[in-house]
Amino acid sequence: MPEQPPSGRRERKKAATRQKIADTALRLFLERGYDAVGIRDVAAEADVAVTTVFSHFASKEALVFERDADFERRLARAVTDRAPGAPLVPALREETLALVRHCLADEAAPVWRMIDTSPALREYESSMRLRHAETLAAALAAEPGAPGGATACRAVARFVVDAFALAREADDPETAVDEIFRMVEAAWEAAGAGVPAGPAT
Q1: Closest CA to 75 of 24, 1, 145
Q2: Which residues form the DNA-binding region (predicted)?
């Protein structure tokens, strides 16, 4: 589900500035190395103030994961915005597969190599996944017929979010997604969900 473009001149200008900062930061990180580049370097290269960088990104790590909020929303909307009567687990599987394909594109490979070799970025990614799982758990808990306990929804949500990392590391990511979501479906049903999950094909 693609993110809607910002409406209004001010919003478009703000989004363009944010994208320029993120693109500049990523280019510098890949050219010079993540640890060798500071926020001031990014601001100078992007021709913005340091405060402008921080108005768009809370930390240096967030510059690398600039699609973070978009991915978080997409997972929740796979639940909340699916068609009436559409089964839950296949909707989550399709969104997860789309995210995996996005992050396995050829142009993303250098970025993931950088992330994998940086303890700070790996730690940020781990905390990001936990946050995404909490957002997804809230969406699952709001489903009609969802398991009564919050723990069950949180457990299934973490399973879904971790599917991305597991698939990214697999030799055959798409097959890995299929295997993982068969277990997600079983876990959702075992939790006592009253809404049919549907086949995770």
Answers
A1: 1
A2: 38-57
